[in-house]
Amino acid sequence: MFLQVLLNGIFLGAIYANIAVGFSLAWGVMDVINVAHGTMIVIGSFITFFLFKFCGLDPFLSIPFSMFILFLIGYSTQKYLLNFVVKVGIFLSLTLTFGLDLFLINVVLLIFTGDYRSVTPSYSGTNFQMGRMIIPYVRLVTLGICFLLTMLLQLFLTKTRTGRAIRATSQNRQAAEIVGVNVAKVYSITLAISAALAGACGSLISMVQSFTPFEGGFFIMKAFIICVLGGLGNVMGAIIGGLILGIVETMGARIFGTGFQEAISAIIMILVLIFMPKGIVGSKYK
Amino acid sequence: MAILEGKSVSKLFGALPAVDQVDFYLQQGEILGLIGPNGAGKTTLVNLVTGTYPMTHGEILFESKRINGLKPAVIARMGIARTFQIVKPFLGMTVRENVVIGSLFGKGGTERKTKMAFEEADRWIEFVHLQDYRNASVDQINISFRKRMDLAKALAMGPSVLMLDEVMAGLNTKDIEEMMALVTRINQELKITLLVIEHVMKAVMGLCHRVMVLHHGKKISDGSPQEIVNDDRVIEAYLGERYAKSRRAS
Amino acid sequence: MEGKKQKRLIIGIIISFGFMVLPLLIEGYWIRVMSSIFMYAIITGALNIIAGFAGYAAFGNIVFFGIGAYTTAMLMLRVGFPWWTGVIVGAILAAIFAILVGLPILRLRGHYFAIATLGINRATEQIALDWGSFTGGGKGITLPLPKMEIQSFYAMIYFIMFGLLILTVLTNLLIARSRLGYALRAIRDNEDAAEASGIFAPTCKVIAWAISAFLTGLTGGVFAYWFSFIEPATVFDIMIAVKAFVMMMLGGAGSVLGPILGAFLLELISETVWGQFLTIHMLILGIIVIVVVIFIPRGLLELFRRKISLAALIKNIKNQSV
Questions:
Q1: Do B105 and C189 touch (CB under 8 A)?
Q2: Which terminal residue of chain C has fewer beta carbons within 10 Å of its beta carbon, N or C?
Q3: Beta strand residue intervals within A82-236, DSSP E
Q4: Nearest CA-CA distance, residue C7 and chain A, Å
Q5: Closest by Cβ to A183, choosing from C51, C112, C322
């Protein structure tokens, strides 16, 4: 019934929004499309899987770990790789992250093999019941954490010194440099945060669906679509775009069945690109 | 005869009028100076003529034909060329290749075969005295040469109207004098009508038959160089109300 | 003809002759490897027209490969057309698709265009997957087998691919010297200035993409005939597109021979690495991509032409870094 479908859509949308927020941050601030973002999410899933399976750590508690590890990965990637090519052109950073994606996928593949994995803690299938609606426990906590992370990000960007430096650099790199911002460091931190968000996302997703090292491509497509829908570099836009996509997909699947779903999402993205280049919500962060 | 005419030309960016109901005209064979403080709308006006920006209101006529609303490439092929304030060369190519873009695609370009277009390009490279750098890669030559190259490319388009956007900016005294000589040659030998956006007063006074002044998007004065230099409104625009008042008082 | 051009022409003819005689000297496995190398070189050369010359990063260009493959497969299987008819029709369809899609899409710049092409590839792949009744869906399509002895067949494929490669090189050469070539490069370097100079950018871009699509479509069709089996995941594989991109960059985007060289080099390396290190083949490819992007972004040809030393290279990188 309608409210249930809507709720499911919101749960899905929250995850999508989270995927997009991290991705959009790198894009908006540095004009970097991190194609490896999807695989970073997957790495987060595998970290949670590993900690759950071999250390018995509750998946939700593994989030700080996956965030930390991915923070390091993101920071090193920007510092030692991307910072050398970001100023030059789009081909370069795009192709570089493709290469990085290839590399990361295969590292994970070597360590964990290509089998489908999932994380199923004891409370996996449990639900709350509210009226006629079924609210899975896991989904609800996921929604809460997504919300929390986004709020923290927003606070970080607006209230802290580093956050303001990031926003300044995003608006005008040269001006930021002149007033003493260490742009290289700001960029590194930006990608690090973006990766950390991906990590958290991956941890949450690991409980919701099964995954292989190759899941990244699927996430990236969603991220693209949402960023196009919601406007670039725009945290609010990513959130709204993610929620909209989640709701539309869930409702669409309910009404039309799951065939052609992916194709339709991709086509919607292209149509938005053509007709509403600034996205449904707004324009670039700047 | 007015070869180029603008009637009530306006361009609004959102609610901000960059160009505000400007009437202007260019007599065939003259050099019109276009001056005004930074942000006055001079480059925007040029962009409106070339079709790079769509106009919000008004009309622009070239040789008595309406050109507003036409695509930039169409307008270029009709015989209107311009240089850019911040030079926009084709960095991946040589000087010769940059200029040949003008002779290949400008007025009369479609009738030329590639070989002839190159010969045409060479002619213009010589005209601006750049023949020693013909095959140099653009990213290796300095700003003064790039400006001359930009000029050669514009000339290679076979224009009847040429609009120069701060072509003297960043040049030293000697270069300015050379450029002024070139502009004079273009006007007198080649019979090209010119619109010159300039801040370098020496060039404005020395070259222009007539000068138009823009301020905050509006035309505030129009006349001979001598007239506008003594025009209170122009002085006020550049130097401020207080200076203009004190000058009147003295 | 000037001396330098004459020399190049002779070298070109000698090399081509060498390739044509090669099948007699090497064994079956290497004939197939060379065919594969030729195929990548064609895809890269075709990509060069839209990405190298015009500067539009068509990351999803592989969609035309898929369209060519599927058209050929379906025409051969359902209608009974001979393979070469299928291939040509497939290529024409790919070109038409490029024109239809290109008109709106080529108005997008930079990242947006790249993403849009990825979206188009993805959408087309998904349609091929979901429209099972028409395209065979995930199970793919099995083509009628060729009616000839297998070794002769592989040799024939070798020559077809080589022929397509020559076609691609000649196309690139012709474009480079023509008005279109100059227009595309001007568009790449500064689209606004190009338009102000009298270039009709939309028309030029669409033509370039249609040519690129045609060549890529031809290759897809021949691929289908070659392997006698196609499925969406293979013929719309983004990895092929990425490899082509890296090959183009490695050799030198926007030059005539650079992309071809890059393809040869990277594919040969791929083959040897694949032979030795099966499991980490892709991993090493990923590293190669990163290294190429950072150290050889303008391509090897450019490196040799300008005789850039390692020191100069490192200085270059430092200058452009954040």
A1: no
A2: N
A3: 127-130, 133-136
A4: 34
A5: C322
Share the mean pLDDT of chain B.
89
DSSP assignment letter at B190: S
Largest CA distance in chain C: 61
Last residue of a domain, one of B134, B159, B184: B159
In sequence order, what DSSP letters do the residues of B39-74 get, joined into one string?
A: TSSHHHHHHHHHTSS--SEEEEEETTEE-TTS-HHH
Q: Residues B182, B226: one domain?
A: yes
pLDDT by residue (tens digit) across C84-115?
Answer: 999 999 999 999 999 999 999 998 887 789 88
CA B123 – CA B84 distance, rounded (Å): 21
pLDDT average, residue stretch C4-26: 83
Note the CATH architecture for domain A2-275.
Answer: Orthogonal Bundle (1.10)
Q: 3-class SS at A2?
A: helix
ipTM: 0.87
Q: What is the pTM of this model?
A: 0.87
Domain check: are B176 and B248 in the same one? yes
CB contact under 8 A, A90 and C286: no
Domain that holds residue B122: 87-159
Strand partners, B19: B11
pLDDT per residue as tens digits for the range B29-71? 999 999 988 888 899 999 999 998 899 999 999 999 999 889 9
Distance CA A176, CA A195 (A): 23
Q: Measured between CB atoms, which of B52, B100, B102 is closest to C192?
A: B52
Tell whether the model's pLDDT for residue C278 goes beyond 70.
Answer: no
Domain boundary among B116, B140, B159: B159
| Co-location of B186 and B212 in the same domain | yes
The residue count for chain C: 322
List chain C domain ranges: 29-235
**Tokens read off for B13:** 């960016």
Q: Name residues 144-183 of chain B within 8 A of C (Cβ).
A: 153, 157
Q: Is the pLDDT of residue A125 over 70?
A: yes
Nearest to A1 by CA among A140, A133, A143, A128: A133
Q: B119 with B145, same domain?
A: yes
Report, as ranges of residue numbers, the positions in chain B whose pLDDT lies below 50. none
Q: Do chains B and A touch (3 or more CB pairs under 8 A)?
A: no
Q: Phi and psi dihedrals of A206, rounded to 5?
A: -55, -25
